[in-house]
Specification:
Length: 697
């Protein structure tokens, strides 16, 4: 227990007094065996005095230690020299014998090396090129590839993986050709010298549930800044704003919401340094709050919780802290590591405290960049503006971007013609963490693209064209996401150490049951981690998170939304749907052991929406439907989906067009569908028709 009557000093306050960063002071305290958790921890007066004395005495002690270390090194070197002299003498005695033995060893090694055939092949090569390298007939290679189910001709390209398998069959050892072209060398960032690095402002994203006050909080922060800077009103020209407090800057991204955050991360753009999670004190933790937390955890970014609306009479910050603790975010005052700041965006309470906490976390993260080199950054927004042409909002992450720089972003090139800051003012250069609007691109770049400064516009055009070609190749050979079918082979290759899973179910109980059962399957080869679990249909957000985290989506008694399904196909995200918990668990277990043998796959035939329900005497309810996509077959299996949740699976009892029985109804036509043994049909229900097809093994 802490003694309250003694005055206490925070670690960050002492760090300021000693002209040290909080990070350095914490490491010094740990060296002195004074245990502190973080920069907000408190120290007693006696401890503060002891630290001050020790830090004053330290320079003298370090000099003595250095002197002693130098003496020890000198003695060690003398011993090493003596040992070497003795070793050389003994070696000379047996040198004639050694020479003979060495000759024999070299000859046998050379013989062994002659027997091993090694070839080096690139990422892609034609069958003819592979045949020439191995000195075999191309037709033999084609036969082997056809036996593996790969239909190719002599001049068609095959990838490294298939080429290596063929070469191994002929007794060759295969090395991959490391071709580092100019583009790759340009993309590789050379590490900066520590002395060139300078502190940079933190980049902050605000996230949270709808109506919890994200926009109000950003407005309050900007207005506070305006009052302090006697500026008047800030006109927001670009999707980021700069705030200044205590002569230090903070950059806020104006793209709140975990969808935007994850979409950027999925494209490899990890630009956020700190996330501020807004939770309403009267509402508590809501589904989107949980989603945001899971997205931030997956991105491994530090988080500060802003408990908003504390001015309301129904506000209960302690309840929010309890709910956060249940999700693994234990507040600092309760002995955890999560900073919670009570604020009111409307009444302007706690805003300064929140900004100070952001600066403290930024100091702990030790954010630095080198401003004295060509700029590198990320595009956070891009559009085509009338009179301006392609315009992009760029956050500079390293170096300095200047007017006249030749730039490359994805498959787009250009030259910086003009730059505007977050207040709409024209500027000539932008340093690290600065958000700027850039004019001068050849086309509109994509959000998330990396921006690089190159030597001239001609070089930028060449590299952009080469990137377009590479993109076409990559689309043909798209990166394979992890799926249950190939999980075992990937585990054996050592490419999967951790399997990420997203669970969506019809009720919360099923989510918890599945989560516990699946996580218990982890073993020494692969660790299974459920990165998100929620109730409801599988959405586009789930697919984006799965794509960014290379995860598998498991749906229990739910269906994917149409857009989510299309996105999953595009992003190659594996979605598995189940009606029985044990089937899901058995499938994952079997995939891990290499026993997964899918015998059937579901082929969706069509979808129809129930527009009216008719009561037919002696038959029951008949659904008056409109076919939205595909076709409905009389003998197909069907499922009834209500609000994304499966309510029935069965067969079609009758399919009619007007009064006639028909075998099928195509998209765009109306029909009457009678469902076998199911009468609880309602307007707005979706009827999905599908067939089970056997997969040849």
């Amino acid at each position: 227990m802490e003694v309250n009557n003694m005055s206490k000093t925070r670690v960050y306050e002492l760090a300021k007094e000693l002209n040290l960063s909080s990070k350095d002071l914490i490491s010094k305290l740990n060296d002195l065996d004074i245990k502190v958790k973080n920069h907000m921890s408190t120290l007693e007066d006696e401890e503060v005095e002891l630290i001050m004395d020790l830090l004053r005495d330290k320079p003298q002690q370090t000099e003595e230690v250095h002197q002693k270390e130098e003496e020890d090194i000198f003695e060690d070197n003398l011993e090493d020299i003596e040992e070497e002299r003795v070793y050389k003498k003994s070696f000379k005695k047996g040198s004639k014998k050694n020479k003979k033995n060495n000759k024999k060893a070299v000859l046998t090694e050379e013989k062994e090396e002659d027997e091993i055939k090694i070839i080096t092949i690139p990422e892609f090569l034609t069958v003819k090129e592979l045949a020439e390298k191995m000195k075999v007939n191309p037709t033999e290679i084609i036969k082997k590839l056809i036996a593996k189910g790969i239909m190719v001709t002599v001049n068609q390209q095959i990838d490294f993986e298939n080429a290596a398998k063929i070469a191994e069959e002929y007794g060759f050892l295969v090395d991959k050709e490391e071709v580092k072209d100019e583009l790759e060398m340009l993309l590789e960032e050379t590490p900066d010298d520590e002395k060139d690095l300078q502190p940079r402002p933190p980049i902050v994203t605000v996230m949270g549930h709808v109506d919890h006050g994200k926009t109000s909080l950003l407005d309050a922060i900007r207005n506070t800044n305006v009052t302090m800077k006697e500026m008047g009103g800030i006109t927001q020209h670009i999707g980021a704003s700069v705030v200044e407090i205590n002569d230090k800057k903070i950059v806020f991204l104006d793209t709140p919401g975990h969808e935007a955050f994850t979409a950027m991360r999925a494209r490899g753009a990890s630009i956020t340094d700190i996330v501020v999670l807004v939770v309403a004190a009267d509402d508590g933790v809501m589904p989107q709050t949980v989603e945001a937390i899971n997205h931030v955890k997956a991105a491994n970014v530090p988080m500060i919780v802003a408990i908003n609306k504390i001015d309301l009479p129904t506000a209960n910050p302690d309840r929010v802290k309890t709910e956060l603790s249940e999700l693994g975010l234990v507040p600092e005052e309760w002995g955890g590591n999560t900073i919670c700041v009570p604020v009111s965006a409307k009444k302007n309470i706690g805003i300064d405290n929140l900004l100070e906490m952001i600066l403290l976390v930024a100091e702990m993260e030790d954010l630095k960049a080198n401003p004295n080199k060509p700029a590198r950054g990320t595009i956070i927004e891009a559009k085509l503006e009338k009179g301006k042409g392609p315009v992009a909002t760029v956050i500079v992450q390293n170096g300095t971007l200047q007017i006249g720089d030749a730039i490359l972003a994805g498959t787009v090139y250009g030259k910086v013609r003009a730059m505007l800051d977050d207040k709409g003012r024209r500027i000539k250069k932008a340093g690290p963490s600065m958000p700027v609007e850039v004019l001068g691109f050849s086309e509109v770049p994509e959000a998330g693209d990396k921006l690089i400064v190159v030597e001239d516009e001609k070089k930028a055009r060449e590299l952009a064209e080469r990137r377009k070609e590479l993109q076409k190749e990559m689309e043909l050979k798209r990166k394979q996401k992890v799926s249950l079918e190939d999980l075992f082979s990937q585990i054996q290759e050592g490419s999967v150490k951790e399997l990420n899973i997203i669970i969506k179910a019809d009720v919360q109980g099923s989510v918890e049951a599945l989560k516990k059962s699946i996580e218990d399957l982890s073993n020494e080869e692969v660790r299974i981690k459920v990165i998100h679990g929620a109730v409801g249909a599988i959405t586009e957000t789930d697919v984006m998170l799965a794509s960014a985290s290379n995860a598998i989506i498991i749906g229990f008694n739910v269906r994917p939304e149409t857009n989510a399904k299309n996105l999953a196909e595009k992003e190659k995200v594996d979605i598995k749907l189940y009606r029985i918990i044990y089937e899901a668990i058995e499938d994952i277990k079997a995939a891990m052991k290499g026993l997964l043998e899918p015998k059937y796959k579901e082929v969706e035939l069509g979808r129809a929406e129930v527009r009216a329900v008719f009561r037919v005497p002696g038959v029951g309810n008949v659904a008056g439907c409109y076919v939205l996509s595909g076709k409905i077959l009389r003998n197909s299996d069907i499922r009834v989906v209500r609000d994304g949740i499966v309510v029935y699976e069965g067969k079609i009892a009758s399919l009619k067009r007007f009064k006639d029985d028909v075998r099928e109804v195509q998209q765009g036509f109306e029909c009457g569908i009678g469902i076998d043994r199911f009468n609880d049909i309602k307007e707005g229900d979706i009827i999905e028709a599908y067939q089970m097809e056997e997969i040849p093994r």
